[in-house]
Write a structure and sequence with these properties.
The complex is a heterodimer of chains A (about 800) and B (about 50).
Chain A (H helix, E strand, L loop, with lengths): L19 E3 L2 E3 L2 H12 L30 H7 E5 L2 E7 L6 H8 L8 E7 L4 E7 L5 H10 L13 H35 L5 H14 L1 H6 L1 H12 L6 H20 L7 H25 L12 E6 L2 E6 L8 E4 L9 E3 L3 E5 L1 H4 L5 E4 L3 E2 L4 E2 L4 E5 L5 H10 L10 H27 L4 H14 L3 H20 L2 E3 L2 H7 L4 E5 H5 E12 L4 H12 L4 H9 L11 E5 L3 E6 L2 E6 L1 H4 L14 E8 L2 E12 L3 H9 L3 E5 L7 H7 L5 E3 L4 H13 L4 E6 L4 H6 L2 E6 L11 E4 L6 H34 L5 H35 L3
Parallel strand pairs in A: 17-24, 17-26, 24-25, 26-27, 27-28
Antiparallel strand pairs in A: 1-2, 3-4, 4-6, 5-6, 7-8, 7-9, 9-15, 10-13, 10-15, 11-12, 11-14, 16-28, 18-23, 19-20, 20-21, 21-22, 22-23
Helix pairs in contact in A: 1-3, 5-6, 5-10, 6-9, 8-9, 9-10, 9-14, 10-26, 13-14, 13-15, 14-25, 14-26, 15-16, 15-25, 15-26, 18-19, 25-26
Chain B lengths: L2 H25 L8 H5 L12
Classes of the chains: A alpha+beta (about 800), B mainly alpha (about 50).
């Protein structure tokens, strides 16, 4: 799908879809356009003539589009603060691309005199605007931004990002304070270390007190650990911060005692060094973890597609590309991917994904539809009002109201382990202290604190999320999108696999369609096509694509699709039915042959009169038989199909011994089949389309919805897989296995590390400062190990993918 | 030799002053965005033309 690349005349970047064109010149964004125009109009090449900005007329917008911003409730939510009539607001502008955009946006004060200041944060694509309430308001500002090409992305869910900034700042301050104290205290400690007892008492005492005073801010810097330990204490849980806080307090109190009673130099250097390195480790962890993290938003795509209308043309776009302003055609049983407004006449929606209730909701033209609604009526056109948000979709998918079997497994074990671990650490540290106490109190102190510090259960808690998280990231690169980490584990526990046939093993696109029966008039063909257009069933899609038609779009008054049976639709006077023979017409056996081996049939009838059938010679996906055979080595495989047994000989020819086949399955039959297997205490993986198999997908232990250019989404599924990657299923399963193995290995690694650390600490050979350095190193190394190992195995998938081209 | 105590105190206080400056800088948002200012210098020249 090669698009000719346009280069922006102003900045030289490649232009994307939203290219702006003026006089045959291409610009990547409005910023470049305006700046170019300003430069072009003046003779001087260097100067940006700012006064020209006054003459830019805002584009006409849909009137009233931003009115809601001025309502008090909404305004409250959006603005940062408002003092003395000056208000600050932050808008997210996804269209910021280059420095010209930055320049333009920071000069909008010249286009709206109410704006006092506007500052862009380029990396975050945000603009922070300070304006005067008297002179302008949110509505005007948002309209202005939209009119120059930077439509604000209004998203109430993003308000949480404020908190993250505050905590980052506070952490930086604490690191600074701890570092300051650490450096100074180390300097003050030098004379006493180096003089070896020959230091003047005045100086010695002074330095000791100074060190003690300098260690007070360190306690402030360590306040997060204290707070968290105290919180967990209150709920009677022992978190890892408890031993840490104990260690820090012990050091401080001991130092205080020693200095005040003049019996020793205290441990201020260890204390400040400890806290400093702990905090430094936290900062570093935050940065590296963020890079390695399983934040899937930017690199991976929800493998569902939806039809977008561009003028009169229709094209498939992935959900991630759905933007505000797009017009989409949502067919029956597809979900509406983003908040939209209904353009079509009317339809029924199912909001069970969001609310858990499946009573249909009736909507008419102009009504607002929330993302996640399922269309259960005719296909309709909708206009998107908010960009697609993958995080929102994934969030509700994870927390949706559908009940699945409770997961008991690894993840719960790691929780328990963490609790016992802390108790274990406390016991060992007190034991160490008591052991050394009669011999040498200094060593006893050291040992006590070192053990508390060196114990690192954080690695235990991190192995699973990072192994599985990496696997999730790798999977989504191959369009295999898992709902959550748990699914990785479930994939390794299955005993049997079930495949649906139509649309999963076969693909609609390359199938061959032929018609037998009474010849159809053009009008009748149009009727068939118009009805088929609304359905996402692979056979409907095939009929829609293959049938020639005039361009008349017929109006469908009533549409209903019964899964496993067919479609009924009413157009004007005609009632049309499409689907299984028994569904379509009550007539007895007709003249027409419909038992051609190897082909499925879709029958049609107009007003109850049987007319004929389409026979579809299914094309099986390339390589699918190899994959199935490979899987059958390890798992018992069943193929369930709603079609008749006609295809059985063909399948048996290509597949090994030991496969099960069940034909003429209704959706309920499939469900019972799975339940039967589960009653034998076996775990089932099912791969089917999200359409007919939603019940079965929900019931199975792992339900994979195979998606093929549709936006069928069933919340009961655990994963979505793009159909052409189905052949990679054996490799996906083996990667899942490797991930679980890696998680175990990294547990082992962290336990090993802890044992060695304990060993050194107990024998008095480990100083608290060294322990403090080792702690973040251990967590990072365990995490790196987990991520690298899984990534390495993930490389094998790439090889497999190439071999199928 | 005890003058060293005065010197140590003085330098400590000086360092503390810098610490305070550091904290003030963080709080006032200097470290929030370390990327965009680099873009801004490219257009800074026209600022001198602005009539304040």
């Amino acid at each position: 799908m090669a698009k000719s690349e346009k280069i922006c005349i102003h900045c030289g970047d490649v232009c994307r879809d939203d290219t702006v064109v003026r006089d045959d010149k291409y610009f990547c964004c409005s910023g470049c356009l305006f700046v170019y125009e300003i430069l072009h109009d003046t003779d001087t090449q260097k100067d940006y003539d700012i006064s020209k900005l006054k003459y830019i007329k805002p584009k006409a917008l849909t009137p009233g589009e931003y009115d809601f911003l001025n309502t008090a409730d909404i305004k409250e939510k959006i603005i940062q603060y408002s003092i003395n009539g000056r208000t600050r607001v932050i808008f997210r502008l996804p269209n910021i691309y280059c420095s010209a955009c930055v320049w333009l946006l920071e000069n909008i004060g010249r286009m709206d005199s109410g704006i006092i200041e506007s500052k862009v944060n380029f990396l975050k694509k945000e603009i922070s605007i300070l304006y005067m309430e008297e002179l302008t308001d949110l509505r005007q500002i948002a309209s202005l931004l939209a009119s120059i090409g930077y439509k604000p992305q209004l998203n109430f869910a993003d308000l949480g990002s404020e908190k993250k900034e505050k905590s980052d700042k506070s952490l930086l301050i604490k690191v600074g304070v701890a570092g300051f104290c650490f450096a100074n205290i180390m300097l003050f400690a030098l004379p006493e270390y180096l003089a070896k007892g020959m230091l003047e008492p005045d100086i010695k005492t002074y330095l000791r007190f100074l060190s003690l005073i300098a260690s007070l801010p360190v306690l402030y810097a360590a306040s997060d650990y204290f707070r968290s330990a105290w919180m967990s204490f209150k709920v009677r849980i022992l978190s890892i911060d408890v031993p840490l806080s104990l260690g820090i307090l012990a050091l401080f109190l001991r130092s205080f005692y020693e200095v005040v009673t003049m019996t020793g130099s205290g441990y201020s250097d260890s204390l400040s060094g400890l806290v400093f390195f702990l905090l430094l480790g936290k900062v570093f962890q935050k940065k590296t973890f963020y890079q390695l993290s399983f934040e899937r938003d930017y690199k991976s795509y929800f493998p569902l597609s939806v039809i977008k209308k561009k003028g009169s043309k229709e094209e498939f776009i992935p959900l991630n590309d759905v933007k505000s302003g797009d017009i989409l055609l949502i067919r029956n049983s597809e979900i509406i991917p983003a908040d939209s407004m209904l353009l079509g006449s009317e339809t029924l929606l199912d909001y069970s994904f969001l609310t858990g209730e499946s009573t249909p909701t009736f909507v008419k033209t102009g009504d607002k539809i929330f993302s996640g609604a399922k269309n259960i009526g005719t296909g309709v056109e909708v206009k998107v009002v908010r960009d697609f948000q993958q995080s929102y979709m994934t969030e509700i998918w994870g927390s949706q109201n559908v009940k699945k079997k409770e997961l008991t497994g690894n993840s719960l074990i790691s929780n328990k382990m963490a609790k016992y671990f802390t108790v274990f650490v406390l016991i060992v540290s007190f034991a160490g202290f008591l052991w050394w106490l009669p011999k040498d109190i200094n060593i006893a102190m050291n040992v006590f604190v070192s053990i508390l510090i060196v114990a690192c259960p954080c690695a235990l808690a991190l192995s699973t999320p990072f192994s599985y998280g990496t696997a999730l990231r790798i999977f989504s690169k191959y369009n295999f999108f898992l709902k959550s980490d748990n699914v990785v584990e479930e994939l390794t526990r299955i005993d049997e696999i079930i495949f649906d046939k139509t649309g999963t093993l076969t693909e609609a696109e390359n199938s061959v369609l032929s018609y037998q029966g009474r010849k159809l008039t053009q009008l009748e063909k149009d009727i068939v096509r118009s009805v088929a257009r609304n359905s996402t069933h692979p056979y409907s899609r095939l009929i829609f694509t293959e049938l020639e038609t005039s361009d008349d779009k017929l109006l469908i008054e009533k549409y209903s699709e019964i899964f496993g049976q067919g479609i009924e639709a009413k157009l004007g006077e005609t009632i049309f039915r499409l689907g299984k023979k028994s569904f379509v017409s009550k007539e007895e056996e007709s003249d027409f042959l419909s038992d051609i081996s190897g082909e499925s049939a879709v029958h049609i009838a107009f007003n109850g009169v049987y007319t004929g059938f389409f026979s579809i010679k299914s094309d099986y996906r390339t390589g699918i038989f190899d994959s199935l055979n490979k899987l059958s080595d390890e798992y018992r495989i069943t193929i369930l199909s709603g079609d008749s047994e006609k295809e059985k000989p063909f399948l048996e020819k290509h597949l090994k011994e030991g496969f099960n086949y069940n034909f003429n399955q209704s959706p309920a039959d499939k469900l019972y089949y799975i339940q039967n297997i589960q009653n034998e205490n076996k775990r089932v993986l099912m791969a089917g389309d999200g359409l007919n198999d939603s019940g079965a997908l929900l019931q199975s232990d792992v339900g994979i919805a195979v998606s093929d250019n549709t936006a069928n989404f069933t919340p009961g599924s655990d994963a979505i897989l793009l159909a052409d990657k189905l052949t990679m299923l054996p490799d996906f399963i083996s990667l899942a296995k490797k991930s679980v193995e890696t998680a175990y290995f990294s547990y082992g690694l962290s336990i090993l590390y802890n044992l060695i650390g304990f060993g050194f600490a107990f024998t008095g050979n480990l100083s608290p400062v060294v322990a403090a350095i080792l702690m973040p190193i251990s967590s990072i190394s365990v995490v790196l190990f987990a991520v690298l190992r899984v990534t390495l195995f993930g490389q094998k998938l790439k090889v497999k993918e190439i071999s199928f081209i | 030799m005890s003058v060293i105590l005065v010197l140590i105190t003085a330098s400590f206080l000086l360092a503390a002053f810098f610490l305070v400056a550091f904290i003030w800088a963080i709080k006032s948002g200097q470290f929030d965005d370390t990327y965009t200012p680099s873009m801004r210098i490219l257009t800074e020249e026209n600022e001198t033309q602005k009539n304040k």
